[in-house]
Structure formats: C-alpha cells, structure tokens
Amino acid sequence: MNPLSRREVHQPGELVEAQPWMPYGQWIESSDTFATRLVVQLPIDTPYDQVAFYATASLARKDRLVLQPPLQSLGNSWSGGKTSALVKEDQKRGVDSLIYQARVHENNALDEYTRDARFVTVYWKFGPQGASVVTSVAREGEEDRVLTPAEQRDLVSRYGLVDLIAGPHVRTLWDIKSQR
C-alpha cells in the first residue's frame, strides 16, 4: 500500500493498565539487551477494537550519573503535598504523577565539591494519553525551570540522560482472542 494513500484515524484512548516493566535503578551494560513480558488481562466483552502497547524508559550512563541510593519516593500529585508547578499544571489536564528523587554525585572530584548539589527527579505520569516517564536533573527548587535546547544538550552530554519512548505496538483484539 502506498503510504501517501493510506488513511489512519487516531482517537484518544483510555489507559487500561500501567506498570513498571523493569526495576528502577537496574544497570544495563552498553552491549546488553533487555526483554520483558507483561500480561494484561481484558474482559471478554471489552468495548475495545484494538490495544496499543507503549514502553518508556529513562536511561543514564552509569559512568556519568552516580546516584546516592536509593531513588526515593517523594509522593504523588493527588495527595496535595509539595509538588512542582509543572506537576500542578499537568494535574489540571487530568495527568497524575508519581514522583521519585535521588541526589546526584558528580563524576569529577572538583565538580563534586564546587557545584551546587543536583538531584535527579523522575516523574511517572498517568493520564488520558497513557503513561510515560520524564526525568530532570536540577538544583533543589529548580525542578520547574524549563531548559533551553542548549541546556538540554549539555544535560545529555554531562550525565548521558536520555528518555526513550517505544510504541505504539498495536494489536487487534480479534487477533489476540482468536489465539485461544
């Protein structure tokens, strides 16, 4: 089929299930691969025609980003605790977040003692669009600051921090249910 003549209709879906697909803080070597299998159970009389699977991950180079273990839970967006303005804006749009944070130790001894302490904050977001993971590295209290493209490139260069999104992998329910 000619891709220019193909018609696709995308409609916002409903989040059916979100769950971690690997333990956080687990190291993966540069030449390693990682595979996992998750089972999502849907009722037989589900109103859905198809299911789309997405996976998100936030990866950092272990030789550049050293965390003071463990990554600790700071709470969530719906409990009314101390959250950033960006999380509050997301909540107005129906997006909830689980928030984790850890102290970053610089891999350079001079930077470790001269730079202000940095913290990596991980936001696991859930909403009408599905679930995703977003990270930031910033001084305490600066988590809301939006980085310029140059600052974002510097962050990737310094810490090797990259957010990955895979998907959608779409399966029709007819295909799934007919395998019984």
Observed structural traits:
alpha+beta; five-stranded antiparallel beta sheet; globular
Structural summary, described in words:
This protein is α+β, with helices and mostly antiparallel strands. It has four helices and seven strands, in the order E-E-E-H-E-H-E-E-H-E-H. The strands form two sheets. Strands 2, 3, 4, 5 and 6 form a five-stranded antiparallel β-sheet that branches. Strand 5 and strand 6 form a beta hairpin. The longest helix has 11 residues. It is globular and about 60 Å long. The two termini are 30 Å apart. The N terminus is likely disordered.
Average pLDDT over all residues: 79
The whole-angstrom Rg is: 19 Å
The count of helical stretches stands at: 4
Shape: globular
Overall SS class: alpha+beta
Low-confidence stretches: 1-8
Largest sheet: 5 strands, antiparallel
Report the sheet-strand fraction: 25-35%
- Residue share in helices? 10-25%
End-to-end Cα distance, whole Å, is: 30 Å
Count of extended strands: 7
- The helix/strand series, from N terminus to C terminus, equals EEEHEHEEHEH
